[in-house]
Amino acid sequence: MRFALIVLVATLVAACAQTKTFKPAGDFRRPDHAVRVLLMPPDVELAEITAGGSLEPNAAWTEQATRNVESSLRGQMAARNTRIEAYRPPADGVARFAEADRQTVKLHNAVGQTILIHNADPALALPTKEGRFDWTLGREAAALGEDYGADYALFVTMRDSFVSAGRVAVIAVAALFGLGIPGGQQVGFASLVDLRDGDIVWFNVMRSGGGDLRDPESARSAVESLLAEFPL
Question: Residue 136, Cβ neighbours under 10 Å: how many?
């Protein structure tokens, strides 16, 4: 998913709340047995906003933030007494399975983006959904349950952006003329997927005008917000 597009989508939901949860109708019923959740590698990207307003991804920032987000996710799951199954890339010689898993993560991003667009504004609601929340990742995700013996999978996407010195100058000049130019922002979404059928049983979106995923404590706070109302 392109960084710029997810930031654009985030502005659509900003007016609703800092966090907003979507889920199918009816009560979620947690299995009676000990629940095992497969934690998929979080899809994290950090970028700098140039003076002209374009976004330039930063690999070093992204690497640090990814470590912080993954560590925070594990901490949150442990606090909920939920058993985590760590995703392990397939061994050498079965590259096609590794690629299939990567495509599943990309599929989650695409589906998540679609959920944001069509649930953020009633005018954009899909007529075929008739107000229902019934999204799925399909058999691609269900296959993970067979591979790991897990009940659910947790997919997380997060983006963070920061203004460059040039952008700060542009914002300052614009303010002199009474114009407001947004700075960096943080946005993410998470999905809990039932690995029996690939259906999304819980989806939460988070947006913040502050925070820094490069900082462990800030990342912990962001993940805590992202997992607000997590059903397990």
Answer: 17
pLDDT at 30: 72
Most distant CA pair in the chain: distance in Å? 61
What does DSSP assign to residue 82? P
CB 82 within 8 A of CB 227: no
Regions of the chain with pLDDT less than 70: 1-17, 50-54, 90-97, 120-122, 130-131, 163-184
Between CA 116 and CA 231 the distance in angstroms is 20
- What per-residue confidence (pLDDT) applies to 179? 55
Q: How many other C-beta atoms are found inside a 10 Å radius of the C-beta of residue 71?
A: 14
Instruction: Provide the pairing of β-strand 186-194 with 152-163.
Output: antiparallel
What are the helix (H) ranges across the chain? Answer: 3-13, 59-79, 95-120, 139-148, 165-176, 216-226
How distant is the alpha carbon of residue 140 from its chain centre?
A: 18
Among candidate residues 171, 212, 156, the one with its CA nearest the CA of residue 44: 156
pLDDT at residue 20, as a whole number:
85
Which parts of 121-215 fold into alpha helices (H)?
139-148, 165-176
| Residue 132: predicted pLDDT | 78
Structure tokens at 75: 């901490």
What pLDDT is attached to residue 95? Answer: 53
The first and second tokens of residue 163, run together, are 């203004």
